[in-house]
Design a protein that fits this description.
heterodimer; A: 278 residues; mainly alpha; MetI-like fold; two-stranded antiparallel ribbon; 78% helix; B: 249 residues; alpha/beta; Rossmann fold; six-stranded mixed beta sheet; four-stranded antiparallel beta sheet; 10 helices
Chain lengths: 278, 249
C-alpha cells in the first residue's frame, strides 16, 4: 500500500512538472521562429509595433511592464510592510483578528472590479489634478499596488511572526524600545520572508492583465512620464489575440516568451537579494 | 549596603498568584543565589526587577521594589532601568547578527560610538565574559554559529557592555554541558568584584558553589534567606533542609 501511494504521488509530481514543461515548450515553439525572423535584438529593442506592416518591436511594452511593476512596488511595498509590522508587532490581538482577514479579502475581489474602479474613479482624478489622459502608468501603479497589498501584508505578517519571540525579549532586556527592537532586530530577521512576499506581489503585478488593460491606456508608444499611457506585455497579448494570425500570432507568443524571461529575471534578482544575509 | 530592597512583593498573572508577599534585600557586590523547584516564582522575581513583567498579559504587581532607594515602579524610563539591571536568560539568545554587533547592540541604542571606543568595549566585555580568546579572530562571524556555551557567554558579555549595576541570571547554565557550565561559573566569580548579581538556578549544587547568600522560594513564597553556608548546612526551615538535601523538588 505504502509503495503504491508513493508511486502515485511520484506520478502526480511527474505529470505536473510535465504539464509545465509542455506549456513552456509550446510557447517557445510558437514564439521563437518570429524572434529568429525579425532578429532577437530587433524584437526586444525595436520601438515600432505595427503588426499589419510586419513591424514587431516590443521595447515599449517591456518598458511599460517595468514601469507599471516598479510603480506598483513603490506604492505597495511601504504600505504593505508597514501594515504588516503594525499588525504583527503593535496592534492589539483583537484588531489583528479583524484586520488581517479584511486585508486578505482584498485578494478575493476580481481584477475587473479593480480595473473598473480605477477607470471610473481614479483615472478622472488623475486627469483633472495632474493632467495627461488619466489612464496612465500612475493609475495602473496605484491600482496594482492595492491588488498586491494582501499578498505582501499576509506573507510579511507570517514572516514577522516567525521571528523567535526571544529575539524581542533579548533586545528589550538590553534597553531597546519596542520600535528599536522591531527596526533593528525583528525586521532584519524577517527580511527574507518579507522579500518573498514582495516577490510574490511583484509576480502578480507583472502578470496582471485585466485591470491593467482597463486602466493603463494601452498606447503602443514609449512612455516619458508616469502620466503617459502604456501597454504592458500581458496587455499586448490579451488585446490582440482575438484577430492575430500568422506572424502576428507568433509575435504574441514571442511576447509570452519575453514575459517568461522577464519574470524569471525579476525572481532571480529578488531571490539573490533575499539570500544575501549578513 | 542594600542595593535592592523588596518589600511585600506580590505578583499575579490573571487569577494565579506567582509571588506572595516576598521580602528580601540584595546587598551591593554580592551574589544572591535563588533556588527553588519549578514554578516557585524565581523567574518572576527577576522579571519584576527590570519590569519585563509589564509585558506579560494580565500581570499585576503589588508591593515595593526599591533600587538604590528608588521605587522601580515609579521609574518612567524603563529602557534606562533595563540597562542598569541586566538579565541573562536561560536559553542563550544571541541576536541574529555578528558577535561584534551583538556586543554593540545595547550601547549603540544610546547613540553612535567612536570606532576606538567600540573596539575597546567589545574587547573588554568579551574578556570579562571569558570569551575573548575563543572569538577574537572572528568577531564578524554570525553569533548563532557559536556553540551553546559560547553563545551564553556572549549574552553575558552583551549585558556587561551596557555597564549595568546589577546582573540577573535566570538559570544561565540549564542548557549547557559541564565544561561550558564551569566556564560560565568562572566568569561569574570574576564579575562579582564589580557587580551585584542575582543568580537563579534549580541546581542546588551550583547555588552552593556560587552564591554568597541563598534564598529559597517555594510556591511563590520566600521560605528562607541566609548565608549560603548556613542554608546548606543548618537551615532554620525544615522545607529548606528537605529541598537542599534532595528529599523533594
Amino acid at each position: 500500500m505504502d509503495r503504491f501511494i508513493s508511486k502515485l504521488l511520484f506520478l502526480a509530481a511527474c505529470s505536473s512538472t510535465a504539464i509545465l514543461a509542455l506549456i513552456a515548450l509550446f510557447i517557445f515553439k510558437e514564439g521563437l521562429p518570429i524572434m529568429a525572423k525579425t532578429g532577437i535584438g530587433h524584437f526586444i529593442l525595436g520601438k515600432e509595433w505595427a503588426p499589419l506592416s510586419g513591424q514587431f518591436g516590443i521595447y515599449a511594452f517591456i518598458i511599460g511592464s517595468l514601469w507599471v511593476t516598479i510603480g506598483a512596488l513603490i506604492f505597495g511595498v511601504p504600505l504593505g510592510v508597514s501594515c504588516a509590522v503594525f499588525l504583527a508587532e503593535f496592534a492589539p490581538p483583537k484588531w489583528v483578528g479583524v484586520l488581517k482577514p479584511a486585508i486578505e479579502l482584498l485578494a478575493g475581489i476580481p481584477s475587473v472590479v479593480y480595473g473598473f474602479l480605477g477607470v471610473m474613479w481614479l483615472a478622472p482624478i488623475i486627469r483633472e489634478h495632474l493632467g495627461g489622459p488619466g489612464l496612465s502608468i500612475l493609475a495602473a501603479s496605484i491600482v496594482l499596488a492595492i491588488m498586491i497589498l494582501p499578498t505582501i501584508v499576509s506573507v510579511s505578517i507570517d514572516a514577522i511572526q516567525a521571528v523567535p519571540k526571544s529575539y524581542k525579549e533579548g533586545s528589550l532586556a538590553l534597553g531597546a524600545t519596542a520600535w528599536q527592537s522591531t527596526w533593528r532586530v525583528i525586521l532584519p530577521a524577517a527580511k527574507s520572508g518579507i522579500l518573498a512576499g514582495v516577490i510574490l506581489g511583484m509576480g502578480r503585478a507583472v502578470g496582471e492583465t485585466m485591470a491593467v488593460i482597463m486602466i493603463s491606456g494601452n498606447a503602443t508608444t514609449i512612455p516619458h512620464s508616469p502620466l503617459d499611457s502604456v501597454r504592458t506585455l500581458t496587455a499586448n497579448i490579451a488585446i490582440e489575440m482575438g484577430y492575430a494570425v500568422g506572424d502576428h500570432r507568433q509575435a504574441l507568443f514571442a511576447t509570452g516568451v519575453v514575459l517568461f524571461f522577464f519574470i524569471m529575471i525579476l525572481n532571480t534578482v529578488a531571490l539573490k537579494f533575499a539570500r544575501r544575509k549578513f | 549596603m542594600n542595593k535592592i530592597s523588596i518589600k511585600g512583593l506580590s505578583v499575579r498573572f490573571g487569577d494565579k498568584a506567582a509571588l506572595r508577599d516576598v521580602n528580601l534585600d540584595v546587598y551591593e557586590h554580592e551574589i544572591l543565589s535563588v533556588i527553588g523547584p519549578a514554578n516557585s516564582g524565581k523567574s518572576t522575581l527577576l522579571l519584576c526587577l527590570n519590569r519585563m513583567v509589564d509585558r506579560i498579559y494580565g500581570s499585576r504587581v503589588d508591593g515595593k521594589l526599591l533600587l538604590d532607594g528608588q521605587n522601580v515602579y515609579s521609574i518612567e524610563d524603563v529602557e534606562e532601568l533595563r540597562r542598569r539591571v541586566g538579565i541573562v536568560f536561560a536559553v542563550p539568545i544571541p541576536l541574529p547578527m555578528t558577535i561584534r554587533e551583538n556586543i554593540l547592540f545595547g550601547p549603540k541604542l544610546k547613540g553612535r560610538l567612536k570606532r576606538s571606543e567600540a573596539d575597546h568595549l567589545v574587547e573588554s566585555s568579551l574578556k570579562a565574559a571569558f570569551l575573548w580568546d575563543e572569538v577574537k579572530d572572528r568577531l564578524e562571524t554570525f553569533a548563532l554559529r557559536l556553540s551553546g556555551g559560547q553563545q551564553q557567554r556572549l549574552c553575558i558579555a552583551r549585558t556587561l557592555a551596557l555597564k549595568p549595576e546589577i546582573i540577573m541570571f535566570d538559570e544561565p547554565c540549564s542548557g549547557l554541558d559541564p565544561i561550558s557550565t564551569a566556564k560560565v561559573e568562572e566568569a561569574l566569580k570574576e564579575l562579582k568584584k564589580s557587580y551585584t548579581m542575582i543568580f537563579v538556578t534549580n541546581n542546588t549544587k551550583q547555588a552552593a558553589r556560587i552564591g554568597d547568600r541563598t534564598a529559597f522560594l517555594l510556591m511563590g513564597e520566600l521560605i528562607e534567606i541566609d548565608r549560603t553556608q548556613t542554608i546548606f548546612t543548618v537551615p532554620s526551615n525544615k522545607k529548606t533542609e528537605e529541598y537542599v538535601t534532595g528529599r523533594f523538588g
